[in-house]
Amino acid sequence: MEYTTANKSGKISARTLLVRFTATGLALSVFLFLNNTSRFSTKPAGKPKIMAHRGLAQTFDIKSVKWDSNTAAMIHEPGHAFLENTLPSMREAFARGADTVEFDVRLTSDQQLAVFHDFLLDYRTNGKGLVASVTMAEMRSLDVGYGYTADGGRTFPFRGRGTGLMVSADEVFAAFPDRSFLIHVKDGGETSGKLLGAMFKHKSPEWLSQIGVYGDHEAMMALKAVFPQLKVLSMKTLKSALISYILLGWTGYIPESMQNAQIHIPLKYARNLWGWPGKFLNRMDSVNTRVVLVAGDGKWSEGFDTEADLATIPEEFNGYIWTNRVDKIASSARFRASKEKVDSCIDYIEKTGKLWGVSEVAVNENQTVTFVDAEHYGYGCGLSMYDSAANFVSSLTLEVRQSCSFSDGHHAFLKYEVTAIGSGVASIAVLERFDARSFGKGLSEKTASVKVASYKNLTVSTDILK
């Protein structure tokens, strides 16, 4: 085989041509490697973050789920008293170490967004019919724990305990004004998008930066038209983003469809993305895109729910980890704050005899008051009080958890027990660090006496006796 060329003979051998092709291919291979390997890139900063699916919820066997499964009727034996998509569930998820809580919304007949997963009321509640056919007021009257059973319907452990827990999306934002959320728009199209947009209208850019929305494509487009920087995701936008990146990402180019976005990627497929993990994450961070890693094939909200699951995630990963068991995984070393930072929190308590960053706490029927105390490092601290059933009642013993957030996103959690004695005195005992994200030495037990005006309006002085 011979080819014409400009040399004296006017011809070139196939061997020379092969060498040239090989050199070109080798150069391209070197470019692909250097442009997409994480070995020489800056390691993504920070620890991975926890995305708590539906807050702290009852669990079930994901492998048995189909599109129309009644998951309330197939729960595991309950290990806690919290129900998905409720304020106590979200509050507990944050207290356990969640950075972001995911919740579902559905459009009611009177054009409100109810925080609820199922399209039918029959599975989970004592109601009947479609969510779309009832008003928000009717939704509020339902018992959202009515249908849960772990033994095929012989017992219903949460029946009667879910009345009054149904809320609307705007109530979630009011209850947790500074927290990060991922909202799953289940239906409602453009109407749902516009309703959320109205809630977002007067929010700060800082608040919007920690919010993600996914689900109904028309709803996403309605939101994106008004809030171009908002991180959104629909199945259509996800497919467009990933296909574009697979075709062009090897060059380092980031398609527009992958910018200012919410990207959910099953780990089994993420390994095939250009630059995975470190360089890919740095690229996404540079274009304001939030990466959420999910387990399985991504079909049924499978999460990283055990230490064994976490061990499969690359060390460089600093994005969001999807989980259904924030109560199980948040204590993992993957999420812990540095020993020095937690020790600084503990040292402050021991030196001053006060709860870190909080001077006084008033707990009312809403269970929670949140403080931001600039005097003590400017960290935000929240205090929550519950009884053993996760409800605020006129109980003699309540559990208190304090969450202190560091500026780099890490947290330290402390656990106390508040006990009422007689008609007007209570004691606070520091039981332990609530080990969601902390290293370091333990806390010695200290107690303090406080006055209790009434069980429904409990004011706790946080001075701890030396």
Model description:
- There is one protein chain.
- It contains 13 helices and 19 strands.
- The protein has 466 residues and is α/β, with parallel strands linked by helices.
- It has three domains: 2-36; 49-335, Alpha-Beta Barrel (TIM Barrel); 339-461, no CATH class.
- A hairpin with a 6-residue loop joins strand 1 and strand 2 (11-13).
- Helix 5 runs parallel beside helix 7.
- The longest helix has 23 residues, at 14-36.
- The radius of gyration is 26 Å and the shape is globular.
- Residues 1-6, 338-342, 353-400, 403-414 and 416-466 have low confidence and may be disordered.
Topology of this protein?
Blueprint: E1 2-4, E2 11-13, H1 14-36, E3 49-53, H2 87-96, E4 100-107, E5 113-114, H3 136-140, H4 169-175, E6 180-185, H5 189-200, H6 205-209, E7 211-215, H7 217-226, E8 231-233, H8 235-248, E9 262-266, H9 267-270, H10 278-286, E10 290-294, H11 307-310, E11 320-323, H12 326-329, H13 339-352, E12 360-363, E13 368-372, E14 380-386, E15 397-405, E16 411-421, E17 425-433, E18 447-451, E19 458-461
Helix pairs in contact: 5-7
Tell how many strands the DSSP assignment holds: 19
Mean pLDDT over all positions: 75
Please indicate the count of domains: 3
Structural class: alpha/beta
Name given to the CATH architecture of the largest domain: Alpha-Beta Barrel
Brief characterization of the structure:
The chain has 466 residues and is an alpha/beta fold.
Features:
single chain; 466 residues; alpha/beta; TIM Barrel; 3 domains; nine-stranded mixed beta sheet; six-stranded antiparallel beta sheet; 13 helices; 19 strands; globular; disordered N terminus; disordered C terminus
